[in-house]
Automatic annotation (TrEMBL):
This is ABC TRANSPORTER G FAMILY MEMBER 16. Gene3D superfamilies: P-loop containing nucleotide triphosphate hydrolases. Pfam families: ABC2_membrane, ABC_tran. InterPro entries: AAA+_ATPase, ABC2_TM, ABC_transporter-like_ATP-bd, ABC_transporter-like_CS, ABCG_transporters, P-loop_NTPase. It comes from Salix purpurea (Purple osier willow).
Length: 744
């Protein structure tokens, strides 16, 4: 199967024998005759199945030429399929409005396709006003209109991206209301922005999408064959091994990026395909090629609906049905061929050499600026629709029920993630194509591949940790066991633990870069949010282990910390737990905050508060009671106390002996002889013998002075690890609540 995409399917055959985007067939871009009726081509899955059958039939032959001819014959056989239109998507009386306050004195940016209110004091803004129409399998329906007319809003309404309680009207498929769960499985939505990983190649991007959307029952070779066929269908063969690219990395062109964005959402061969302005930002040739791909997708047995701002004449020849909107109202609905008749009867005939859509949009814009607006055009459209589109049209198109139509589609190889036929339609189609552990493996593989392609990200973080460790090792080099040495140890641990948290802040842009990719992929059940959280957590652990070893090995012996190798191991685990908790905390905040600079500001501020209440600057006993709660939620507190107990746990280790008690007082400057006299005087006053070698302060005394008496070092370690898990759980709920794509 590996050679399928390279030789046997150099083009995706759709009724004629010419492959799509064949370099030897460039006249297709210049010749665009109108067809009288769309023909239905086999689905991608059906074609692959036939190829597999052909391969099995010819497996006994040793001549590769015979195999090649067998596949070529399939291209001719495709055109003989009987046409059928089992799917009809109908929408009736769609109305959607939002509540707004009085107009602000300063401009507020909003979604481009939201039409303005009728007055400055309007409380309700109508975005869709009684929109009706239908789209059929094998056809492309385009929604046109000026900015603010409601194009994207209508596409969102049909794609179930508007909350049910906010949208009035009905959307049915073959006369049956679509459930949200079923719609997510049988449809795909392509956003206006190309949200792709820049360092993955085109083939890798589509392959990961196939791993998510295609069921585990399909072997990897079949998934790869499907991706190769899809690459040819999208006309991306020459760019298959090129990275997507971004501002800093040269990659594919804008038109190729758009086709990749379409490909990742149609890899499972959906029945319904919605696209929000797929041609925006593209030159005319690239836009034409994108719509040409959509035409082939529609002919393979899908309903394609898209919004487009102003299509060129060549693109217009590929569209089957048009809906013109003006401030949320339908001003025209019908085929492109009926535009001259419609506007001719309206009293504004289209000039012979004029672009029909440009003329229509210009006229609509002129009417919008008139006192009565487009009211006359809206009313004329209603009467024209009544005369030219009888109400029984839908009933004559498809007599198949939704269940039978989907079952027939699945049997023909469409909707690859669908399940076998079942009496209960909703239960027969799985919510997710793969189990949780499979999703985790694919997500982990993709993240590791991205990290491998951009090693500088981890390299910079490792370098920052090493530089910080070297600076601390040289500043606190070989601390002694004097009173000053004990105080310097406290400062070292406080700075070291806070540093582990601050270095985690560098990972804020990582998820924010993936945020919208994640929202797009999970909106239509490519994988579970829980799979993403678990995979995100697992792949972060190896890097945290490397960072912890680097920091601990750089500082432990250079500073002269206590405990030997066992002490080093506990210090390493303490650093690792701090990195884990800090990484989890920053990950959670990146799921809540959507802006990089705002995220950095919040993280730095909160970590500063954690350090303030950790117990280093002010001990627990001295913190005011109304701030004591912050001490216990401080993430720095627990690894700081664990490291201190690991260092000062030995009661036999002395840090202040005899005259050293004066070292941290103004008496430290007096001569030694005078210190010894004062020591004798203190001894006689207290009634005990204190010599210059008598231990005055041990490690346990230092812990007591710092108020570290409640938890053992192991408890502090487990609590730090638990904080990490707690923030990962919060991250999951942040994704669950914050990644809702539906409008309210």
């Amino acid at each position: 199967m590996s050679g399928l995409g390279h030789s046997n399917m150099s083009g995706f055959y759709t009724g004629d024998t010419r492959p799509l985007f064949n370099p030897n067939n460039q006249m297709e871009l210049q010749q665009y005759p109108r067809r009288s009726k769309p023909s239905i081509s086999p689905t991608l899955g059906e074609l692959l199945k036939r190829v597999e059958d052909a391969q099995s039939d010819t497996s006994t032959y040793s001549t590769p030429v015979h195999h090649h001819h067998q596949v070529l014959q399939l291209g001719y056989a495709c055109s003989s399929m009987p046409p059928s239109n089992p799917f009809v998507l109908s929408f009736n009386n769609l109305t959607y409005s939002v509540k707004v306050g009085p107009k602000m004195p300063f401009p507020v940016r909003g979604k481009a396709d939201l039409s303005p209110g009728s007055s400055e004091t309007a409380r309700t803004k109508v975005l869709l006003n009684d929109i009706s129409g239908e789209a059929r399998e094998g056809e492309i329906m385009a929604v046109l209109g000026a900015s603010g007319s409601g194009k994207s809003t209508l596409i969102d309404a049909l794609a179930d991206r508007i909350a049910k309680e906010s949208l009035r009207g009905s959307v049915t498929l073959n006369g049956e209301v679509l459930e949200s769960r079923l719609l997510k499985v049988i449809s795909a939505y392509v956003m206006q922005d190309d949200l792709l990983f820049p360092m993955l190649t085109v083939e890798e991007t589509l392959m990961f999408s196939a791993e998510f959307r295609l069921p585990r029952s399909l072997s990897r070779s079949k998934k790869k064959a499907r991706v190769q066929a899809l690459i040819d269908q999208l006309g991306l063969r020459n760019a298959a091994n090129t990275v997507i690219g971004d501002e800093g990395h040269r990659g594919v062109s804008g038109g190729e990026r758009r086709r990749v964005s379409i490909g990742i959402d149609i890899v499972h061969d959906p029945i319904l395909l919605f696209l929000d302005e797929p041609t925006s930002g593209l030159d005319s040739t690239s836009a034409f090629m994108v719509v040409k791909v959509l035409q082939r997708i529609a002919r393979s047995g899908s309903i394609v609906m898209l919004s487009v701002h102003q299509p060129s004449y060549r693109i217009l020849t590929l569209l089957d049905r048009l809906i013109f909107l003006s401030h949320g109202q339908t001003v025209f609905g019908g085929s492109p061929e009926s535009l001259p008749e419609f506007f001719g009867q309206f009293g504004h005939p289209i000039p012979e050499n004029e672009n029909r859509t440009e003329f229509a949009l210009d006229l609509i814009r002129e009417l919008e600026e008139a006192p009565d607006g487009t009211k006359t055009l809206v009313e004329f459209n209603k009467s024209w629709q009544t005369m030219n589109n009888p109400m029984n049209r839908t009933r004559n198109v498809s007599k198949l029920s939704l269940k039978d139509a989907i079952s027939a589609s699945i049997s023909r190889g469409k909707l690859v993630s669908g399940a076998p036929n079942n009496s209960n339609l909703t239960s027969s189609v799985p919510t997710f194509a793969n189990p949780l552990w499979t999703e985790m493996m694919v997500l982990s593989k993709r993240s590791l591949l991205n990290a491998k392609r951009m090693p500088e990200l981890f390299g910079i973080r490792l370098g920052a940790v090493l530089v910080t460790g070297i600076i601390l090792a040289t500043v606190f080099y070989h601390l002694d066991n004097s009173p000053r040495g004990a105080q310097e140890r406290l400062g070292f641990f406080a700075f070291a633990m806070s540093t582990t948290y601050y270095t985690c802040a560098e990972s804020i842009p990582a998820f924010l870069q993936e945020r919208y990719i994640f929202m797009r992929e999970t909106a239509y059940n490519a994988y579970r949010r829980s799979s993403y959280v678990l995979a995100h957590s697992l792949i972060s652990i190896p890097s945290l282990i490397v960072l912890s070893i680097a920091f601990a090995a750089t500082t432990f012996w250079a500073v002269g910390l206590d405990g030997g190798f066992s002490g080093f191991l506990f210090f390493f685990f303490t650093i690792l737990s701090a990195f884990w908790a800090g990484s989890s905390f920053v990950t959670f905040l990146s799921g809540v905050v959507s802006h990089v600079m705002l995220g950095f500001t919040v993280v730095v501020a909160i970590l500063a508060y954690f350090l303030l209440f950790s117990g280093f600057f002010i001990s627990r006993d001295r913190i005011p009671s109304y701030w004591l709660w912050f001490h216990y939620i401080s993430l720095v507190k627990y690894p700081f106390e664990a490291a201190l107990q690991n260092e000062f746990h030995d009661p036999a280790k002395c840090f202040v002996r005899g005259v050293q008690m004066f070292d941290t007082t103004p008496l430290s400057a007096v001569p030694l002889a005078l210190k010894l006299k004062m020591l004798k005087s203190i001894s006689s006053t207290l009634g005990m013998n204190i010599t210059s070698n008598t231990c005055v302060v041990t490690g346990t005394d230092i812990l007591r002075q710092q108020g570290i008496t409640e938890l053992s070092k192991w408890n502090c370690l487990w609590i730090t690890i638990a904080w990490g898990f707690f923030f990962r759980i919060l991250f999951y709920f942040a994704l669950l609540l914050g990644s809702n794509n539906k409008r309210r």
